[in-house]
Amino acid sequence: MGCRLRLVLVIHNHQPVGNFEGVFEESYQNSYQPFLDVLSEYPDIPFSLHTSGSLMEWMVEAHPEYIDRVRGLAESGQVEILGGPFYEPILAGIPKSDRIGQIKAYTEYLKKLFGTPIRGMWVPERVWEQSFVSDLVDAGMEFTLLDDSHFSAAGVRAEKMHGYYLSEDEGRLLKIFPDNETLRYQIPFTDPVETIHYLKQIADHHPHSVVVFGDDGEKFGAWPGTYDHVYRDGWLRRFLDLLRQNSDWLKVTTLGESVDTVSPMGSCYLPDASYREMNEWALSSERQLELSHLKDKFSEDEEFDRLKPYLRGGFWRNFRVKYSELNEMYSRMLLVSSRLQSLEATGVDAEDLPILHEARTELYRAQCNCPYWHGAFGGLYLPHLRNAIFKHLISADSLLEKINHRDNNWLEVEAADFNLDARKEIRLASHRLVSFLSPAHGGHLYELDIRGAKHNLLATLCRRPEPYHDIIRQAAQEQAQGGQNGDDIGKIHNAVRFKQPGLEQKLQYDNTPRKSLMDHFYQPGVDLDTVINGGGELGDFVEGVYLSSVRRTDDECDVRMSRKGHVGPYEVEVTKTVSLSKSAAGTLVVQYELSNLPTEVPLHFGVEFNFAGMAAGASDRYYYNHMGKQLGQLESKLDLEKLDRIGLVDEWLGLDAALDLSSPASIWTFPIETISQSEGGYELVHQSSVVIPHWEFVADDEGRWSVTITLSLDTSAAQAKALSEAAASGA
């Protein structure tokens, strides 16, 4: 009968930069290795394989035998190696030059590793904008695949998606395959017979078609419940056996072979989009819920299937609007990329070229996509992934500063729009740290990069409503009434699992960001629980606009911020001056001067600090007082009296952060915890430790009051650890 249908199986394996070593290894043992074990028994069934650069680099070090096996399969023609941007960035989330640079860099890496040409690529999260066509072609790519929903949104009907299309930008042509959504939901969750029946229908009605399945390799063993289903229960072997048994009409092949032997179905320009769920996640929580309710309401309508292709959802870049913390990370990445491009354009000495190359690699690692959005799994909500991004950004930035500054002891202060809000922020930096202040938003300290520990102490995340919080509340209510968590393999996308009990009771939302130098005027006598719940505020300083000025000498930089605002019926003025000196380049000194205060009136002033990335729930991560006495782990809720020093230690990170107060204060501490989704279920995640020194006082006769807060950062333990690890690795 001959080939009436080509089926392309595209497997995409990925682990993000900064993910836990145990997750890499578990995914290898449960998915990547057993998948190859089975496919190696079917040499007549080819497939296309994409592995992200972050995972590939780990494989090279941890499991070189896997690399050898893939190389052998590539040489035999069973595996087609796909490329892509090296560290799996969202293409819409990085500059054009970095898009092309990452793709080219990974192509060269893969060529050297496997000795095979790289013609096509995987688009991370299938986030697409039409201008990417010319970028991909300029980077050397011939073809790629995107979800069929992209084509639906362009007006292409389902029966016209069994092949590939030419797409154009600036005269460059790229071949793009639609990735079949029905197969993505069938494989590996339904009986293989059902998939063969579906493919047979296409072959009968649309002979000489090409149908593409492209999806996460982690579905084959790493996702909850899939290992037993795919391997022990034999799903994968049954599927491959059926492909063999139907080879008289069904040809399993690769993207490259299809391009070489099948003509394109035509030309098509695709709209800015991603896969259906991603488009929905990019909407605000309110709009997501509205869309969900509308779909539920009209899903039974006989015309609904015709309407669905036009339900577009949102636009991926709006994740940066939805989550301000994400925009801060993105803006920091752009700043590093811009500085690196400037150095490359002006040229550097030959001795600095290796440093520049290392900085470029660090920047590319910092562009890994997972923490730059949030959807079904943790993403942005996972501190270890955000911390990894900042680790590599700080590394890249520090390497560039080695080229810019021959002096090992330097200071810089500059004002510019660093977070892309059309307001000027202030960057105060030394060879020890980088701080960013936002006078237009409460005079907050919103980023504090500690070079020695490669850590942003303000990589925080505030608590905000998410659509799945309603699912948590509903599921908790059903469980209380005797319901069960869903673990049915066929309902894996909708299963509800709680990793801790009582999560619904932890749902709480913040009215303001969680940053530092946040200025509060509280009700006198207010208690900690009221503050934790967002109450007790009398002033308008927390997010008010401060006027700012900078002063620079050879040995010190000062940023002065002042605001006239209200505390209840009184108009008062707050001035805070943040200083950094060469003699104490790892210390920020903050002097507060409160003036025009009402006299003989009790006042209550507090300064909120947030410390992020110093994990909770471990005995080697704790608070301490001026005597060095431990006060509790970093998730502790504390109400302390009359202290002039409080410190936070993370022994694993090698970081000691301490606040010294010129006037003893009462101090509140409490954790910021979010409830988010992960592959394993809904979980409680520690985001930051709040520390609020606060003072109840009466102003002097001139209506004044002042205090100096010194934030000192000791990274000697982190630096010693890094030197030890470098020595052990022979670096």
UniProtKB/TrEMBL annotation:
Keyword Plastid among UniProt keywords: no
Key words of the record: Carbohydrate metabolism, Glycosidase, Hydrolase
Domain Alpha-amylase/4-alpha-glucanotransferase central: 314-400
Domain Glycoside hydrolase family 57 N-terminal positions: 9-270
GO molecular function, one term: alpha-amylase activity
Annotated Alpha-amylase/4-alpha-glucanotransferase C-terminal domain residues: 417-709
E.C. number(s) listed in UniProt: 3.2.1.1
GO biological process, alphabetically ordered: alpha-glucan biosynthetic process
Top-rank lineage group of the source organism: Bacteria
Any single Pfam family the record assigns to this protein: AmyA-gluTrfs_C
Ribosomal protein among keywords: no
A Gene Ontology cellular-component term: extracellular region
Family of this protein: Belongs to the glycosyl hydrolase 57 family.
PANTHER family: 1,4-ALPHA-GLUCAN BRANCHING ENZYME RV3031-RELATED, 1,4-ALPHA-GLUCAN BRANCHING ENZYME TK1436
Protein name as annotated: Alpha-amylase 1
